[in-house]
Design goal:
With about 350 residues, the protein is mainly beta. The protein has two helices and 22 strands. It has a single domain, classed as Beta-galactosidase, Chain A, domain 5 (Distorted Sandwich), CATH 2.70.98.10. Helices cover about 5% and strands about 45% of the residues. About 45% of the residues are buried.
């Protein structure tokens, strides 16, 4: 049996309110001082904090006492339509008409129009052994496109991971482009070792330099070393000197559906814990590996599922990687991620 609880914005205040308590779960509603609504869902192993009305951003994830979220500069989420103004979350939905970092010729915002979308409604679905936070958003632009997006995030009892979902339906009368990245931002794992069920050589160093990146001479020297490794069929498989990642290092993997139907990728800490992500390569044919370490931001996203490279709309269009949704066509995406 499934129980549905419809949420309303007036339910949220700065004083947390517990709306559900059981032997398996606790659900609290609260509002950050910056006036951003949040839902905290706890199970026996940890919790997630989700922003139900701002793109259903997953702000925090913590299991077994381990914070899974990248180190960042934000003490709380900021109400904004620009992802860079609140870039401190565990995961967000990049897209949906365009995604990634725009080139100088692109016209879309960084990571697309949906990531900080003002959601139309939100609700909880409660089933034996699981709680799912769901949302709905209708995008509509005169002389443009119209779609309905339904993101979701599910936490099961006694689980150390979550399942992130996205459902997109084209409600325009013409075909609509779709680009989507399930952008997961993992905490930096010192001396962490990468592993995946695709060849290490699949991950190639990104050649383009986005406008928000300001490379140094040391960065160019280090990336030249990585290029030499790649020419020998090798790549970075273990995080070593964090100073080398002061400016982000990004690897891209294309056409990963040629290797397997289902990706399993992970990073393992010397302390014994492992972060793991699983997804279908029929849904995501590309993947990203993002590494950065400085005083303000520290991240080791060992794999980020994507429908195309994160280099903006025009690059995806040129490469033939855009998904074109026919009128009334729906695409679904699902990613399971967390502690192994």
């Amino acid at each position: 049996m499934k129980t549905k609880i419809n949420l309303q914005r007036e339910y949220f205040s700065e004083l947390p309110t517990e709306i559900l308590s059981s032997s398996e779960f606790s659900v609290k509603l609260f509002r950050y001082p910056a006036s951003v609504e949040a839902v905290e869902i706890k199970n026996s192993r940890g919790k997630i904090i989700v922003l139900p009305y701002m793109g259903q951003i997953i702000w925090r994830a913590e299991f077994d006492g381990i914070d899974l979220t990248m180190k960042n500069m934000f003490s709380q989420p900021r109400r904004t339509h620009n992802m860079l103004d609140t870039y401190g979350c565990f995961a967000f939905h990049s897209g949906l008409l365009a995604s990634g970092c725009p080139s100088p010729e692109d016209t879309h915002p960084m990571h697309g129009e949906f990531c900080c979308a003002d959601m139309d409604r939100a609700w909880l679905e409660i089933e034996p052994g699981s709680i799912t936070l769901c949302g709905e958003y209708e995008y509509c632009q005169g002389f443009g496109y119209r779609y309905t997006a339904r993101p979701s995030v599910q936490l099961k009892a006694d689980a150390g991971n979550i399942t992130i979902g996205m459902n997109v339906k084209n409600t325009t009368s013409i075909p609509m482009p779709l680009q989507y990245i399930c952008h997961i931002n993992y905490a930096y794992v010192d001396e962490g070792e990468f592993a995946a069920n695709i060849p290490d050589s699949t991950f190639k160093l990104r050649e383009t330099i986005p406008s928000h990146i300001k490379p140094t001479a040391d960065w160019f020297a280090y990336t030249d070393e990585i290029k030499k490794m790649q020419s020998q069929g090798k790549t970075l498989t273990k995080l070593g000197n964090p100073a080398l990642y002061n400016t982000e290092i990004v690897f891209l993997a294309d056409d990963i559906d040629e290797y397997t139907d289902s990706i399993e990728a992970q990073i393992t800490s010397p302390q014994g814990y492992t972060f793991k992500t699983q997804f279908s390569t029929q849904q995501f044919k590309h993947a990203i590996r993002w590494i950065m370490y400085n005083g303000d931001q520290q991240v080791s996203s060992f794999i980020i599922p994507a429908t195309s490279r994160p280099e903006g709309f025009l690059a995806a269009q040129k490469a033939g990687h855009l998904i074109m949704l026919e009128p009334n066509e729906t695409r679904e995406f699902s990613v399971t991620t967390g502690l192994k």
